[in-house]
Write a structure and sequence with these properties.
Elements lengths: L2 E4 L8 E4 H13 L4 E3 L7 E6 L2 E11 L4 H20 L3 E12 L20 H14 L1
Parallel strand pairs: 5-6
Antiparallel strand pairs: 1-2, 3-5, 4-5
């Protein structure tokens, strides 16, 4: 766990942030972005590098089907930059977004057409076969 120091010329003393705090802010900003999921891993697909120029952020996400990937990446970059800079006074130098995959919606069951049995109801052919089998057994 790294400790990052922020020292403003107008303040007496210094403010020290844990890198976990900055990482938590990044996670929060990603959770507020519609159309993505975090990569299921221990690091949640987030890498932070603290340099003199600012914080370099490397993000891996999974996009939801139907969303524009370039728009998602831009929104992720803007949200992370805005939230981290407003909550910590650090500057974000760069945000790289890696889309690892796409989540497709679960297939929906369509309404049965007239005359078709609903799910769980036996079809006429099944019922006839059961009746024939019953007659053989008796």
């Amino acid at each position: 766990m790294a400790s990052i120091k922020y020292n403003s010329g107008s303040q007496r003393g210094r403010i020290t942030y844990s890198s976990d705090i900055v990482s938590g802010i990044v996670v929060l900003s990603l959770q507020e972005t519609e159309g993505i999921e975090l990569v299921p891993s221990k690091s949640k697909g987030i890498k932070l590098c603290f340099e003199k120029e600012g914080i370099f952020v490397d993000i891996s996400v999974i996009a939801h089907y139907g969303y524009s990937v370039p728009e998602l990446a831009y929104r992720i970059q803007q949200t992370i930059k805005q939230m981290v800079e407003s909550m910590t006074k650090y500057k974000i130098a760069k945000v790289d977004v890696h889309v690892q995959g796409v989540v497709f919606p679960a297939p929906q069951q369509s309404e049965p057409r007239e005359g078709e049995p609903q799910q769980g109801e036996p079809r006429e052919a099944d019922t006839a076969a059961e009746e024939t089998e019953d007659k053989k057994n008796h």
